[in-house]
Amino acid sequence: MASLDFEQEKSVFGNYYESNRKQFAEARDTYVRVIGSLLKRSDVGEVTKIEGRVKDREECIKKFHRKYQGTLEADEQPYEIKDFISDLIGIRIVCLYEDQIPVVSEVLQRHFKTLDVTDKIAAVESTEDSFGYKGLHLDLALSAEMASQPKYQPYADRPFEVQIRSLIQDAWSVLDHKIKYKKSIPNDLKRRINILSALFELADREFKEIRNATAELMQQATVAPISDPLDDARGAGEKAAAASAKTVNAFNFLRIAGHFFKDFEFEDHKVDDFVQDILELDSSFQKAELHTCLTENLKTVRDYRDHLLAENPDRTFSPYTSIRHCLYLYDQQRFGRILSKRPRERFAGWLKAARGASA
Fold this sequence. Notes:
This protein has 14 helices and five strands. It is α+β, with helices and mostly antiparallel strands and 359 residues long.
């Protein structure tokens, strides 16, 4: 029964905590799993972390003492500590970008019962003394529909807190918690902390802008013609047109390679490295040349691949390997080193034999 005796209520809460510790952990794991599944099925973008924790017993008591005890006792309102700890079970979700936070929040509020929302982003931005971590905090509980399912019934009365942050906000929160006695530090240190906080905020914004600019470049590469006119000796007009052709980059490489290898998923970081390999051998290599190179040589390279894999079933021959061989065929003077010594010798030997057989 609720009372105004803090020592008694601490003891009651301690017994409650210990007797339910196992179920708290099970509820935490269940919420992490359910939220992970919901976000995977929703169009929220990449989420880098979903993790849970059960708040330490003594931390719960300290929070109650700090936030609620004085007011309740002044009003002579009996209490049970457990009724005031909404974050005993906590879930943290870390997104890549700040503008994903409201999208994730909307998904969660659509599937769970919302008890409270605390927007620490708005709270920090509305104050002059603005150091401190940002993020969106939701106090949630199972919806009536979920609570009615047998597998979730044990957690029907287990509310939980969700903290949603961007990657940059999460990094700042770690540093923020390491700054000791923030309310008591001198003004010059407060100013330095505010500058650092602003730099993190700027990084968050720039990270998002770079993502948007990258997406725009990708869109441009997708709608642009796969091939531009080549710079050759066919006349001044054609040369002038060819002068505007773009040097190959990761974006137009994906457009062209995707056209020839429709069933292969090119990973961003591998594309970036591969394009750099090409440009190190010819810094002015154009996307039109890449298209011509694949158009003219891919059939020959595929014949070689089939021959090689028939004799060596355990080998692999990826699209990247195919493109390397096409570049070698396209211009051995420029791209002789695109293949390492042994593959180059093996390919040259096969070419010589194939040409001899067809003579």
